[in-house]
Amino acid sequence: MKHHASDVHVLAAAYALDALDPGEREAFAAHLAVCEACRQDAADFRATAARLATAAAQAPPASMKQRTMDAVDGVRQLPPLLPEGASPVAFRDRLRRKAGPLALAASVAAAASFAGLAAWQNQEQQQLEQRARQSEQRLDEVSSVLAAPDARTVHGRAGNGAFTTVVASDRQNRAVFTAAGLPAPSPGTTYQLWLDHDGTMRPAGFIGQDGSVLLHGDPADASAVGLSVEPAGGSPQPTTAPLLLLALPA
Prior knowledge:
- The chain is an alpha+beta fold.
- Among the domains are: 5-57, Arc Repressor Mutant, subunit A (Orthogonal Bundle); 152-247.
- It has five helices and eight strands.
- The strands form two sheets. A four-stranded antiparallel β-sheet has the order 1-2-3-6, with helices on one face. Strands 5-4-7-8 form a four-stranded antiparallel β-sheet, with no helix packed on it.
- Helix 3 runs antiparallel to helix 5.
- The protein is extended.
- 23% of the residues are buried.
């Protein structure tokens, strides 16, 4: 990446993501010593990258092993109840005659149980892997915009007190929305994002909590990004007063 000296302020995101050349990184590190705005931007981008990395991580489910161990340990083996007047020797002989069919039935039942357990475990693993791939793809898309050479940044505060940032790249025709301190929405509602196209608000995705999301739609022709509270599932048009209407960075 090569930039003119006048462009040094746009390197905060690339610096936070370790996407600068060694020479550029050294020069920007020196610039941080005298620029409070860039220090704040770099810190914000580092925090966002950390939240995205955490969101992409997928831990294997521990519940299956725990349930199996609990079931094994929780079954108490009781001594057999002898019929009144029956001798232990006669009872043992009767058990031997029945042992073969019982063992076969138990084996069939165990095989069926383990087959079902293996299928369920395989399905769970596939779902985890799919979610991990989707999270990794979202992380790559957001990181690409944040580290773009032409990335431009604007900050704002929503009506509910959340700090917001929009980073836009003309070359990629993409924009990323970041929120910090965003209160949980009321039950049955969600936070919906909008792109303002000449006064027409077009849906641009959702954000449920602090973090960063890639805006849907075409930001090239949009003038601002909006945020509103909508019914769960979203709305084709805003139904409440916007919490935020932030002009896209020029």
